[in-house]
User: Fold this.
Amino acid sequence: MKRTKLNLLGAREQSRKLDQYSSWLRLSLLGITVTFALFVLSFAVINVFQSNRRTQLQRTKNQLISELSAKRENESKLIRLSNKLSSYNEFQKDDARFLPYFNLLQETLKEGSQSGVLSGFKVTKDRDVEFEIQFEDVDAMLNSFRFIETDEFLSKFDTLSLSNFSRVLRSLAGESETSIRLTFKGQFINLNQKQQ
Assistant:
């Protein structure tokens, strides 16, 4: 078949359709390219912001870790201090608080017995006391007994009794020395009640 006629109108219509398809194709490709470029650009911007945020969080984490380690040191110091405080409180519960009682006994002995020397002293937290007085001779001991039996001396104790009497002989460079020791047991009065 041979064509003898040319249909210019048909070719134009076809050409117009092809132009229209190609412009739609170009617009679609342009739209896809712009969309893809916007997607890549937004992804890059988000990645930069996340990277900055990650860096900032890492710095904050390092700072908090260093503060935490410093606080752990402080915490360990506080724990040690708390342990020491509880040990001190336990000690306070068991402490006899003997100094006021010791001073009371020393002053009382100085008032009444010039020759007696306090050679031993033990007191418990319940105010139970055991003390030893040493004398150089029998006359000094007898003078002290007169004072020990007075109400002034006995008023310092709830109970008091003589628990031991001993005589000690010592030899020094050929000379012998005698000393007498009296051991008393009893219970002091409560000084806190006395003061009120």
Remarks:
- The radius of gyration is 53 Å.
